[in-house]
Amino acid sequence: MFLARRPRSAALRPFVEQLWLFQGEGLGHARERILPSARAQLLVNLAEDRLGATGWDGAWSTGGAALQGAHDRPFELETRMQRAVVGAVFRPGGQLPFFPPADATRNQHVPLDALWARARLRERLLEAPTPAGRLDVLERVLLERARHLSAEPALAAAAAQLEAGLPVGAVRDALGASHRRFVAWARRGLGTSPKRYQRVRRLQRLLGRMTRGSAAGWAALAAEAGYADQAHLIREFRALTGMTPTAYAARPPGDVNHALLE
Known about the structure:
This protein has helices spanning 121-127, 131-145, 153-163, 168-175, 179-190, 194-210, 218-225, 230-241, and strands spanning 2-5, 16-23, 31-34, 41-45, 51-55, 58-62, 65-68, 75-78, 84-90, 109-111, 250-251, 255-260.
């Protein structure tokens, strides 16, 4: 079962893209590669009080609730860690009212206990009687824990422009910032450099097109997603995912960031 919805609270919507819950057994494969999305997530494992995976810098393990910082690199995990998980996906800059700046948690999984004192989030979610009720609990906790809920429209606009493929220099110039200040500001909100963010989000555009059953060849997909040509697409895909486009297979029913390994 997969349940997802936008926050019901209008105050949360500029910061939280989606609240979700997954429950499933017997996925049929042991490991998955999680592809970079440059989106931070709050994750809670309801099946066991542990989260763990293997990343580019080694293995990690935390308690059952953690902040998954914005990732611009892939990592691998065992599917048994996903039997029952609740999460919240943050918009660009959306973690700032709740957690440290995005560059402080980039490519990390930080135990929630290290960020929120006496949160009891996992326990409160387990006490909820229904899946929908668990999403309600998660939303209430986010509202309780917010330090402020004032959005940064300039950051959201810059992120949208970068995702649309506008040159980094043009986005910077529109803000009237120096290169150094622009990069530092973007890292704080997005978790990575503007150029890297743009590359990762272009990959996400491509993954969406690859899984919609498009009959187009690689050259056409490259043009649709914003790559210079097919060779550019292949180089970028391998650099950001560690696999070739032809080796990639998404977990059914189309979870594009979960690539099957075994």
